[in-house]
Amino acid sequence: MHEMALAESVLEIVRDTARSQGARAVRAVRLEIGRLAAVEVEALQFCFDVVVKGSVAEGARLEIDSAPGTAWCYRCAASVPLETLAGECPRCGGAQLELTGGTEMRVKEIEVE
Q1: Where are the domains of the chain?
Q2: Which of 11, 53, 95, 100 has its C-alpha lying 20 to 30 A from 46's C-alpha?
Q3: Secondary element (H or E) of residue 20
Q4: How far apart are CA 16 and CA 74, in angstroms?
């Protein structure tokens, strides 16, 4: 399950940020995860709750914003929404797509005290 590795990476970022801010505790962590990022949100939530035990982020809320999948369609010469990695252009049905968004995962905000 790669969600455990993702949760551990998020915790590392949270620890570094808390340390640099002189924070006593982390109250919330907000992530942005693209719909095409192949991340199981429920599994990530579970893993996050496990890895933060005993850390500065123990008890912190994990908030997740979803980013839409997007691609450039070479046939349409337009940016189009994309629901799956193996999708077709929703406008023309073309298969020549270049992913432009929705595969990322990033820490957007960390609430500390």
Answers
A1: 2-112
A2: 100
A3: helix 2-21
A4: 42
The residue length of the chain stands at: 113
User: Which residue blocks in 22-100 are alpha helix, DSSP H?
Assistant: 41-51
pLDDT tens series, the chain, 113 aa: 699 999 999 999 999 999 999 999 999 999 999 999 999 999 999 999 999 999 999 999 999 999 999 999 999 999 999 999 888 999 999 999 999 999 999 999 999 99
Q: How far apart are CA 58 and CA 63, in angstroms?
A: 14
Residue type, 2: H
Does the pTM surpass 0.85? The reply is: yes
CA-based nearest residue to 101, from 35, 44, 41: 35
**Token match 């095409």: residue?**
36
User: Within 13 Å of residue 69, how many CA atoms lie on the same side as its CB?
Assistant: 18
Sort strands 105-112 and 61-67 into parallel, antiparallel or unpaired. Answer: unpaired
Cα-Cα-Cα-Cα dihedral sign, residues 18, 13, 85, 95 = positive
